[in-house]
Structures are given as C-alpha cells and as structure tokens.
Write a structure and sequence with these properties.
116 residues; mainly alpha; 6 helices; 0% strand
Length: 116
Amino acid sequence: MVLPTNFDDLIAESNKLTLYKKLVVQLNKDLLLANVDLEFDEETLPTSLKLVLQEKVYYLIQNKFSDYLNLLYQIDVSENKIRTLDGEDLVKLSEDVTFLILQREWQKVWYKFKFS
C-alpha cells in the first residue's frame, strides 16, 4: 500500500474507492475511544472534516496535552512521524498532525476493505 502524501490525494483515493464514509466512521470510532468530544456526520464535506479536526487537535495541544497524546495513541499515529514535525508553529503542527491522523485512519479503512 502506498499512503497518500497529502490531504487531496487521500480524499481522492477514498472517493475513488467509495470509502470516504467509512473513513469518517473509523475516525468517529477512534475519537470516541479516545474520549475526545467530537463526532462527524457521515455526510461531512472533506474540507470541513479537515478544518474541524485540525481545530480540535490545536485545542488539545494547547489545553489538554494528555488528551492529545491519548488520541494519537488510540489512533496509532507513528511516534517517529510525530517526532519529525516542527513544533514551533502550533497551527502548522496541528495541520500536519491532522493529516497524519487522517492518513492512519485511511490505512485502517483500506486494509479492512482489501482484506475482509
């Protein structure tokens, strides 16, 4: 599996395979398991999904860092990938982390689609 390298590619791939709704469902499931108070409707537009998730990630980094770490753990975002990000600009960091979250969720959905 070749992971998408940006948000637009990820959404294009999920739409091509008609898996976008499953991506949203998987994200909602992991947000709930991480006790993050955020849920998306399956009809949420991709741009809205990205922006709202990014705002939540930014908020967690700023105000509830342990909840942020718990979310990353629950979703199973690579620690090595997180360490490579620049933490100086929190807006950019939250954008990059949001993509890593969506990328990992896409990976889960794709594997379920391919192998079940």
